[in-house]
Amino acid sequence: MKIRNISIVIVLLDQLSKYLVVHFCHKGQSVVVLKNFLSLTYIDNPGAAFGFMANTQAWIRIPFFVLITIGAGLIVYSYQRLIPLEKVWQRFSLGLIWGGAMGNFVDRVVYRQVVDFIDVEKIAFWHYHFPFIFNVADSCITVGLTLLISIYLFDKNAQAEGMA
């Protein structure tokens, strides 16, 4: 499984979803998708996940995120070289992570901030409003990391082989 192909699909899906939100919604507009569960709420996020560094000046914030993206790319590239092709789920996880990172990186270059729009009102059966609005790229990073950590924690073969 080619990590690059997964990443390209993720970037395309992420950018398409953001394009649709930017061109068909107004900033701050919220559209109910599933009542009491999911809305599309268009916001611009100059920071990272959960608003990290949102209030930091652009001349600090943008180079920081460029360096973080380059560093993440080097880590993913180095790590994927150690994973055999038959380790499909590990490779898939890295594709999700890298695709999500690149999707948000494209936003930083094009818009100087990240377009967020997924607004989860309730999680499962709890009456808990998730306090952050996120996007497809953020979701892919989260799912990829969760999957990779789960494989490491629960797959005895991955533990014995050091996930290689």
Task: Give a nutshell description of this structure.
The protein is 58% helix and 13% strand. With 164 residues, the protein is α+β, with helices and mostly antiparallel strands. The chain has one domain (3-160).
Describe, in plain words, how this protein is organized in 3D.
By secondary structure, the chain is of the alpha+beta class. The protein has one domain. Helix content is 58%, strand content 13%. It is built from five helices and four strands; from the N terminus they run αββααββαα. The chain has helices at 3-24, 58-82, 88-111, 136-154, 156-160; strands at residues 30-34, 38-45, 114-120, 133-134. The chain has a four-stranded antiparallel beta sheet. A hairpin with a 3-residue loop joins strand 1 (30-34) and strand 2 (38-45). Helix 1 packs parallel to helix 3, helix 2 packs antiparallel against helix 3 and helix 3 (88-111) runs antiparallel to helix 4 (136-154). It is globular. The two termini are 15 Å apart. The model has no long low-confidence stretch (mean pLDDT 87).
Comma- or semicolon-separated keywords:
alpha+beta; 5 helices; 4 strands; 164 residues
User: Which parts are unreliable, with pLDDT below 50 for 5 consecutive residues or more?
Assistant: none
Helix content: 55-70%
Distance between the termini: 15 Å
> Total number of helical segments?
5
* Helix-and-strand structural type: alpha+beta
In the sheet with the most strands, the strands line up as: 1-2-3-4
Order of helices and strands: HEEHHEEHH
Q: Per the principal axes of the C-alpha atoms, what is the gross shape?
A: globular
Q: Compute the number of strand runs.
A: 4
How many domain regions?
1
Mean pLDDT: 87
What fraction of residues sit in β-strands? 5-15%
Largest sheet: 4 strands, antiparallel
Over all CA atoms, what is the radius of gyration?
A: 17 Å
